[in-house]
Design goal:
The complex is a heterodimer of chains A (279) and B (364).
Chain A (H helix, E strand, L loop, with lengths): L1 H8 L1 H22 L12 H7 L2 H34 L2 H16 L2 H12 L4 H8 L13 H24 L4 H9 L4 H29 L2 H8 L6 H11 L3 H30 L5
Chain B lengths: L12 E10 L2 E11 L4 E5 L6 H9 L6 E6 L2 E2 L10 E4 L11 H11 L4 H14 L15 H14 L4 E5 L7 H18 L2 E6 L2 H7 L2 E6 L2 E6 L1 H6 L4 H6 L4 E11 L2 E6 L3 E6 L9 E6 L4 E4 L7 E11 L2 E8 L4 E7 L11 E4 L6 E4 L3
Parallel strand pairs in B: 3-8, 3-9, 6-7, 7-8
Antiparallel strand pairs in B: 1-2, 1-4, 4-5, 9-10, 11-12, 11-14, 12-13, 14-20, 15-19, 16-17, 16-19, 17-18
Helix pairs in contact in B: 2-3, 2-4, 3-4
The chains are: A mainly alpha (279), B alpha+beta (364).
């Protein structure tokens, strides 16, 4: 009886998981194997259509590249920020953590529209650059990948910073002092001690940012517009505009598999480089 | 460079009028210490007395508000920690957890631009020195506490530092290992002739390892002297109370003559002692006397005061008596264990023959 009790405790969660996650996923797989949009004729037609079209591969590659570029940008900006946070006084840390978490407290739509104001033709960035005389013509940032990466970097930043900061602040501060006393410069300490030891946080941050930015439908469509096509937009078009659910299911599963592939590759690399840190 | 470990020229370390402030509080307050080349000095004091802060200033991790630190006469205050060439062993060892033992020891050498076989040779040499030759490829977490400390020591020594700093080095070790490591560190320090500063809150540790002890309290050095001087001639009440066990008895100076003072104790006896500086006739005093400097006696007399004997605890070869004087003072008296002792009859306490109690002014 007591043995049963343990798995019984997990039962409600398991049921919820099965009904709201697993069942729809299985339905999705099922729907993808129908040839017509009325879901009456089973077959591999939609898969053949999607995988036979070179355009599909371009969309997949664009989506993955968008994720990777966002990950790189969040690392380049986020890692120094995490280091600054670590060195800050406890009072400043509270202010910083509020600023870091703030994007999560705002609605995605609000954040995204704010970026339209910032990046637009008459937006803050263009006005500033023109007034400084750096550019004579307004830059085209909206509906470009650059503008999208810039806004996603800000929107996804908390997902990079939070795991990074949580791992870094658990590092023994004596390690930095020890490295310094042994004659190492700040850069040597950073690359030989801090970066390797913060690897688990960095990998976790990369996974979250990647998974979140490749699937950020609202930002992708509002800032990228309809000219930049990524997998989420394709799913939306197929399911809610064209009502071709089997094709939408194929695209959804492709997105799922592509993201999972990159994520597992990242976490494998992370385990290899940072696995010995814990334990 | 061929031989096991060559002795460096030992360096003198001078701390001059050093103060450190954190906001409004003063962690180190005008500390001056002149440390001889090759000497082992213990900074001893309760937690929060500024001893660790002082160590961190010497290492360069903390900037002082005032004062100087000199190594062989040259100030090092402007140097960042990585240019001071000072070896430090942290309380928690701070070994790099993602590096093997060999990589940890090689770290400081690589940071100095050494490469290849030179590094390997020195790593091997210093790991042999701390008797961990066979542990090169282990990770720190695969080692015991004592082994980790040896690695930390080898890592600090491998850069051939001018000064060695040890921050509570034995605190995390169990009792038996602690003694082994104390001997080990003392031995290495002797061979290398390294000027060493040790931070500790453990007086036994300070006594056994250090040549001289600086007793610190509230950011100041209360007394800086040999262990014997600190124990036998405490200069302040704080040092007196912090080192060893002591009895404090209230009294008044009844007469002063030829540098000797006769003190009337509140417990009802008068004793004659070396007169302290700056205390006049009739001054209220505290007499501090170590438990082993008191004796129980069956005979009343002018130098003996009546006590009410309490518990007697045999501790090893000694017998620790507890007794209460008539003024309410509880006394601890340590005597060698004898076959017969009739405590009930011995109701008087006196100073032992060679007793050297210390007098301190008492505020009333």
């Amino acid at each position: 009886m007591r043995k049963l009790a343990e798995w019984q405790l997990a039962l409600p969660l398991a049921l919820a998981f099965a009904s709201i996650f697993l069942a729809p996923l299985l339905m999705l797989v099922g729907v993808s194997f129908f040839n017509d949009d009325k879901i009456t004729q089973p077959g591999f037609g939609q898969w053949a259509k999607f995988l036979g079209d070179p355009f599909s591969y371009k969309v997949i590659a664009d989506t993955m590249l968008l994720g990777l570029k966002t990950v790189c940008a969040t690392i380049v900006i986020g890692y120094p920020l995490a280091l600054i946070y670590l060195d800050a006084s406890p009072r400043l840390q509270k202010v910083l953590i509020f600023i870091i978490v703030m994007p999560l407290l705002l609605s995605v739509v609000v954040r995204t529209f704010a970026w339209i104001v910032v990046l637009g033709r008459e937006g803050v960035v263009n006005t500033l650059l023109m007034q400084l005389g750096i550019i004579s013509e307004p830059l085209r940032l909206l509906q470009t990948e650059l503008g999208l990466v810039i806004s996603l970097t800000q929107i996804e930043m908390p997902l990079m910073l939070l795991p990074l900061i949580s791992v870094m602040s658990r590092l023994d501060p004596n390690l930095r002092d020890a490295s310094s006393a042994l004659g190492a410069s700040r850069w040597r300490t950073l690359f030989k001690v801090i970066v390797p030891l913060s690897m688990p946080g960095l990998v976790a941050g990369c996974l979250l940012v990647f998974a979140s930015s490749t699937t950020a439908f609202i930002s992708q469509t509002v800032i990228g517009g309809v000219r930049l096509i990524y997998l989420p937009l394709l799913i939306w078009q197929q399911s809610l505009v064209v009502f071709n659910w089997p094709f939408a299911a194929v695209v959804s599963l492709t997105l799922l598999v592509s993201v999972l592939t990159v994520v597992s590759a990242l976490s494998y690399l992370g385990r290899r480089s940072g696995g010995y840190v814990h334990g | 460079m061929q031989q096991a470990v060559k002795a460096n020229a030992a360096r003198a370390l001078d701390v001059e009028d050093l103060s450190v402030r954190y906001g409004t509080s003063t962690a180190v307050d005008g500390v001056t210490l002149a440390i001889e080349p090759g000497e082992v000095v213990a900074l001893l004091g309760p937690s929060g007395c500024g001893k660790t802060t002082l160590l961190r200033v010497i290492a360069g991790f903390v900037r002082q508000a005032a004062g100087r630190v000199r190594v062989d006469g040259a100030t090092i205050d402007h140097l960042p920690p990585n240019q001071r060439n000072i070896g430090i062993v942290f309380q928690n060892y701070a070994l790099f957890p993602h590096m093997t033992v060999a990589e940890n020891v090689a770290y400081g050498l690589r940071a100095r631009g050494l490469k290849g076989p030179d590094v390997q040779a020195r790593v091997s040499r210093f790991l042999e020195t701390v008797q961990l030759g066979g542990f090169k490829e282990r990770l720190p977490r695969q080692l015991s506490g004592g082994q980790q400390q040896r690695v930390a020591l080898a890592r600090a020594l491998a850069i051939e530092p001018s000064i060695l700093l040890l921050d509570e080095p034995f605190a995390a070790l169990d009792r038996n290992l602690r003694l082994d490591m104390q001997i080990e560190i003392k031995r290495l320090q002797r061979t290398l002739g390294l000027t060493t500063i040790l931070v500790t809150h453990d007086q036994d540790e300070a006594m056994s390892v250090a040549d001289r002890i600086a007793v610190m309290n509230k950011g100041r050095v209360e007394q800086f002297g040999t262990p014997v001087a600190i124990y036998d001639e405490p200069q302040t009440l704080f040092v007196n109370g912090f080192i060893g066990t002591t009895n404090l008895m209230n009294g008044t100076i009844a007469s002063l003559q030829n540098g000797m003072a006769t003190v009337t104790l509140d417990a009802g006896a008068s004793v004659t002692l070396a007169a302290p500086n700056g205390l006049g006739l009739g001054a209220p005093v505290l007499m501090s006397v170590r438990p082993e400097q008191l004796a129980l006696s069956a005979v009343p007399g002018p130098n003996a005061w009546k006590v009410e004997p309490g518990l007697a605890l045999p501790i090893g070869a000694q017998l620790v008596h507890e007794a209460r004087a008539t003024d309410g003072t509880f006394l601890k008296i340590i005597e060698p264990r004898r076959a017969v002792s009739n405590d009930a009859a011995r109701a008087y306490c006196t100073l032992a023959n060679d007793a050297r109690p210390t007098l301190f002014p008492r505020s009333t």
